[in-house]
Amino acid sequence: MDVEDIELQLFVRAMQLRHGYDFSEYAPASLKRRVQQLVRTHDAGSISELNSRLLHEEGFVTRVIEGLSVPVSEMFRDPPVFRTLRDKVFPVLASYPEINIWQAGCAHGQEVYSLAILLEEAGLYERSRIYATDFNDAALAVAADGIYATREARDWSRNYIEAGGSHSLSDYYSARYDFIKLDKRLRRNVTFFNHNLVTDEVFCEAHLILCRNVLIYFSNTLQDRTLGLFRDSLVRGGFLCLGTRENIDFSPAAAGFADVDHALRIYQVGGAGARPLVR
Amino acid sequence: MTTRQAIVIGCSAGGLTALQCLLPGLDPRLGVPVVVCCHTGSADVTILVNLLGRHASLPVVEAAERAPADPGVIHIAPSGYHLMVEPNLHFSLSVDEKVAYSRPSIDVLFETAADAWHDGLIAVLLTGANSDGAQGLVAVRHAGGYAIVQDPLTAEADVMPLAGLEAAGADACLPLDAIAARLNELCLP
Ligand SMILES: C[S@@+](CC[C@H](N)C(=O)[O-])C[C@H]1O[C@@H](n2cnc3c(N)ncnc32)[C@H](O)[C@@H]1O
């Protein structure tokens, strides 16, 4: 066995035994790349050196979580997804007196604000509560600030229009120097908090769960377990939205979800049309 | 001699034309998966998949998350994600930061494929206007894989093959129209 692969296994054990983080069911290829990246950012000679710091250095685990988390996101990424949420899912949500939305793996919050804007424009924001969770506290802090580099935000206005936005994205932020700051009114019904999809439980009855490009980092087993967690969190007829290239065909728990729009990975729990299981 | 188990191909500027020349030359009995990372700059790789499928001798599909790297099939990396090969020889995707200004990145595909197939891997670096793939080629050769670089003189853009040669060298540096034949030779029993 390759020495680095042994070191990686020890890293996973150290995270688990010392800090209670379980990465054993993350897909190995990208986990290895992230850990190698950590070795470089912390000027460590090897993964073993990281392991030693993980065991002995107070607070180092936080830096490691920040390095393993991939808080890369955009506003209105894949505009047709947001347009379809607005056109097909919102009309159903509108029938509930209170709407609970869980955005799992919210990263720097770009999708939280995207959703908030669309809810606002659909007249549903007042009765909505958005639970935005991630296991990276630093990312949650950025998300709560809602400040982004102008350079990053260049494509977002066009995405917003393509997603069916009815104003101009600039109505929702103030621009300063190299940054834009989103209107803080957009988060008056948003709660940001730490939740680890691997170890934490169901915490609300959700009508819509948005979890895009998070499960792609998980093994089939962990993907299946997390889909089970989502199924248990959703009300009957509740919706789940995943990333547009995610594949749930190998998950037994996916049998509980019916396609609303297959290409855009929007599903509905329960009801008719449970998915056939492809093996 | 090592048995060759998989082929990975990377290209960028000029890549479509190069792939249209290379892929039809592959022997339909080629019993290994072929995985292609081509920077297209477009949001949807379906167009590329359809264009290449028209003339290729093997089926061309978009590489699907979690699906196995099936032999005898040409898998194309989707746009906007890094395509990786897991140790169990299934595909995975990530939206990690761009590598060498690219996502999908050839380096990411080559490095993870080298980890998965070791010396059973053949990597082909074609035309391109940036140096993505050079580090990947280093990993492939380090793992004992076989590296083919398109002769820069025959490349529409020579930056990529030159960077590959400089960083890793190659087991073969071939004009574009000779690459398919070499792949067939290496893979067919
Ligand atoms: C690539 S981002 C997805 C951002 C956004 N949903 C999108 O698609 O643009 C992945 C996020 O998942 C989070 N994540 C990874 N593993 C997690 C876990 N076990 N529990 C909660 N969040 C996790 C990471 O911290 C990161 O912020």
Could you walk me through the main structural features you see in this protein, from its secondary elements to its overall organization?
The complex is a heterodimer of chains A (279) and B (189). Chain A has 279 residues and is α/β, with parallel strands linked by helices. Chain A has 2 domains: 3-68, no CATH class; 79-274, Vaccinia Virus protein VP39 (Rossmann fold, 3-Layer(aba) Sandwich). Chain A has 9 helices and 10 strands. Chain A has helices at 3-19, 28-41, 47-56, 60-68, 79-93, 110-121, 137-145, 156-162, 220-233, and strands at 99-104, 128-134, 147-149, 173-176, 179-182, 190-194, 206-211, 234-242, 257-261, 266-269. In chain A, a hairpin with a 2-residue loop joins strand 4 (173-176) and strand 5. In chain A, helix 1 (3-19) runs parallel beside helix 3 (47-56). The relative contact order of chain A is 0.13. The mean pLDDT of chain A is 95. Chain B has 189 residues and is an alpha/beta fold. Chain B has one domain: Methylesterase CheB, C-terminal domain (Rossmann fold). Chain B has 6 helices and 9 strands. Chain B has helices spanning 15-22, 46-55, 106-117, 134-142, 159-168, 176-187; strands at residues 6-11, 34-38, 60-62, 74-76, 82-85, 91-94, 121-125, 146-150, 172-174. In chain B, strand 1 (6-11), helix 1 and strand 2 (34-38) form a beta-alpha-beta unit. Chain B is globular. The model of chain B has no long low-confidence stretch (mean pLDDT 96). Chains A and B meet through helix 2 of A and strand 5, strand 6 and helix 3 of B. Bound molecules: S-adenosylmethionine. The site of S-adenosylmethionine has 22 residues of chain A, from loops.
